[in-house]
DNA sequence: TATTGTTATACTCTATAACTATA
DNA sequence: TATAGTTATAGAGTATAACAATA
């Protein structure tokens, strides 16, 4: 029998982090998906298709997500002058405020989750987790291997 | 300026794990919430109220979740003989099969996410993550401190 | 009175399929 | 033909408020 303690622990950690994410989103009167959309727009791609790929969503789901964000005045669609089919999304002032606020609050609360650990432990944990998340893996669209 | 690398890395790790969870759920033709419900029933509490607290859901949301699981033949409600208001949920054979199958597949794919690391690193990571998830924290109902 | 669970309702998120407009 | 994005539709998940039955 294999040792699956680590995987189980990581799944539980992920649930805890997701809960923090959800609670912070609620404080900003938004859903986690809306917050994720706003935060991604802070630094990532801004084209509809690109973003839907990055989020692992169908394009039609992306349309709805952006519709609701736009209706709430958090983002605006901007047409791409070079490709008249395409559009990107940009944060409004309010959207940016929420994105930055939620990001820093999530960060703070995840730090609180980690709690007091030695500088050495923190460095080790950080480098181990970085190793995992930076390992190249199949794109979102491709089914995971079994 | 604080160092928030660790928190950011943990959030991204949580997203990766959630994605694995979602993809595995899809393989079993269920939603992540249904799978979580089934897996919790394998070992955790089985009362409606207890489970809704554990999952951080309103009781009415729990009703809907269980309704759909029951309609699919994955669980059944059982009345509590000692308290005629209450009921618990039990896995059907099919529900148990799915719970076990999904659990082992999630575990395997999270292991794959971790990839090849030394036994030492694995042990360190495991103990650090365990430390985080086993730290006592406020119940789900209580708002997190700010 | 307090608790357990349900119902009614409204909204969000998501996917599939079919569509429009542009490349 | 292929790609970017939308629309229509259906189902799932969630919360709030009001309710029934039991403790």
TrEMBL record, chains A, B:
Signal sequence annotation: none
A GO term, aspect molecular function: DNA-binding transcription factor activity
One GO BP annotation of this record: response to stress
UniProt-listed InterPro entries: HTH_MarR-typ (IPR000835), MarR/SlyA-like (IPR039422), WH-like_DNA-bd_sf (IPR036388), WH_DNA-bd_sf (IPR036390)
UniProt xrefs under PROSITE patterns: HTH_MARR_2
Domain HTH marR-type, residue spans: 3-134
Protein name: MarR family transcriptional regulator
Originating species: Sinosporangium siamense
């Amino acid at each position: 029998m294999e040792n699956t303690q680590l995987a189980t622990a990581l799944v539980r950690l992920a649930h805890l982090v997701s809960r923090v994410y959800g609670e912070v989103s609620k404080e900003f009167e938004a859903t986690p998906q809306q917050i994720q959309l706003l935060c991604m727009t802070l630094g990532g791609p801004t084209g509809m298709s690109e973003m839907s790929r990055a989020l692992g969503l169908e394009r039609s789901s992306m349309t709805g997500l952006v519709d609701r964000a736009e209706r709430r005045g958090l983002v605006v669609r901007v047409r791409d002058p070079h490709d008249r089919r395409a559009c990107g999304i940009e944060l409004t002032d309010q959207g940016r405020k929420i994105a930055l606020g939620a990001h820093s609050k999530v960060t703070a609360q995840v730090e609180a989750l980690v709690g007091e650990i030695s500088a050495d432990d923190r460095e080790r944990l950080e480098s181990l987790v970085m190793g995992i998340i930076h390992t190249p893996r199949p794109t979102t669209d491709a089914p995971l291997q079994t």
